[in-house]
Amino acid sequence: NQIAQKIKTLIIDRVTRPMTIRWCGGEPFISAVYLDLLEYITEKSNPLIRHTIQTNGHYLQSRSDLILQLAPSIASFRISFDAATADTYSRVRRGGSWSHLIKNVTWLMQNQLPFDIAADFVVQLDNYKEIPIFVELCAALGIKRIIWQKMWNWGTWPMEEFLEKNIYDSQHPAYDDLRRIFDQAKQPMKY
């Protein structure tokens, strides 16, 4: 791949000061370009390169060798949940498997890897009432950091549907209920 080759020669091979690469914008553990770059970086073993990896969590065990090789250079590992139950997960993360996610996250946590592991939760109308039980789920899994995120419309939804789901908008009719739920969960709410 020409893009990967350019990144290798113009960026990776020229790293002379500490940098962190954020792997996101798709699933890094199935992207051919990302996998090529991650394997290349692992082979180079430049201690100045650190990683923040955002993943949907579905490929953790199938990419365990790569994760274990990268572990010393991973600064942060973020797993997208966006739900606290299988039912909600099936609605907000279409095509994903809740049981597979939980199995993979359990595997990751049991390995006691030397990097920060955080749970991402994009707050929306379909999942906000699960915030308190999501906090409990993370505690049960051993995840100490939750990243609450606002929705963004990257052209995923028609504007009317986005406005209906975007409960984090202070103009949303259920916004006050969202604030109550965050208070109930004893979690900070970004404004």
What's the helix and strand layout?
Elements: H1 2-10, E1 19-23, H2 32-44, E2 49-55, H3 64-70, E3 74-80, H4 86-92, H5 98-110, E4 116-122, H6 131-141, E5 145-149, H7 159-165, H8 175-184
Parallel strand pairs: 1-2, 2-3, 3-4, 4-5
Helix pairs in contact: 1-2
Question: What descriptors fit this protein?
Answer:
191 residues; 5 strands; alpha/beta
Can you characterise this structure?
There is one protein chain. With 191 residues, this protein is an alpha/beta fold. It is built from eight helices and five strands. The chain has helices at 2-10, 32-44, 64-70, 86-92, 98-110, 131-141, 159-165, 175-184; strands at 19-23, 49-55, 74-80, 116-122, 145-149. It has a five-stranded parallel beta sheet, with no helix packed on it. β4 (116-122), α6 and β5 form a beta-alpha-beta unit. The longest helix is centred in the first third of the chain and has 13 residues, at 32-44. It is globular and about 50 Å long. The protein starts with a helix and ends in a 7-residue tail after the last helix. The model has no long low-confidence stretch (mean pLDDT 94).
Brief account:
This protein is α/β, with parallel strands linked by helices. The protein has helices at residues 2-10, 32-44, 64-70, 86-92, 98-110, 131-141, 159-165, 175-184, and strands at 19-23, 49-55, 74-80, 116-122, 145-149.
Radius of gyration: 18 Å
Strand order of the largest sheet: 1-2-3-4-5
Order of helices and strands: HEHEHEHHEHEHH
Strand content: 15-25%
Oligomer class: single chain
Low-confidence stretches: none
Shape: globular
The first-to-last residue Cα distance is 42 Å
What share of residues is helical? Answer: 40-55%
SS summary, helix count: 8
- Average per-residue pLDDT, rounded, comes to 94
Tell me the major beta sheet. 5 strands, parallel
Based on helices, strands and strand pairing, what is the structural class?
A: alpha/beta
